[in-house]
């Protein structure tokens, strides 16, 4: 897949995996989020290797990140979106999501998926909405997976 970059003043968004600061991403996701709290670095590396990644940089310093899991024809999952606190309030999250939604390999998809409990206002600007039929939605979710506990396995409870 062709690497894409967008620039705005001293900020850059890039899909180049080689530019990603894995240690910085790991520090934020493992220590400052509830959704990926405690994620092992090797798990993070595997997730990045198998995703379309969007790094956000200020003068080459990683200040934000998002990734897409997709088949590039019918569905995409947007996850691990963040901007470091000191860079929030500058319109960078809106720019990042705009670049993701405008990526040429993510056009014409039937479904986009996002799980969030923050910044719903941002995602709604891009067409995301509450699940219209939550009774159709199912999941197998293990929030303790990084602690070595599989509460979704009946043999492990």
TrEMBL record:
Broad class of enzyme this protein falls into: transferase
Keywords: Acyltransferase, Transferase
CDD domains: NAT_SF (cd04301)
Protein name per the record: GNAT family N-acetyltransferase
EC id: 2.3.-.-
Species for this entry: Aquimarina hainanensis
Domain N-acetyltransferase, chain residue ranges per copy: 1-143
Matching InterPro entries: Acetyltransferase_Butenolide, Acyl_CoA_acyltransferase, GNAT_dom
A Pfam family matched in the record: Acetyltransf_7
GO molecular function, a single term: acyltransferase activity
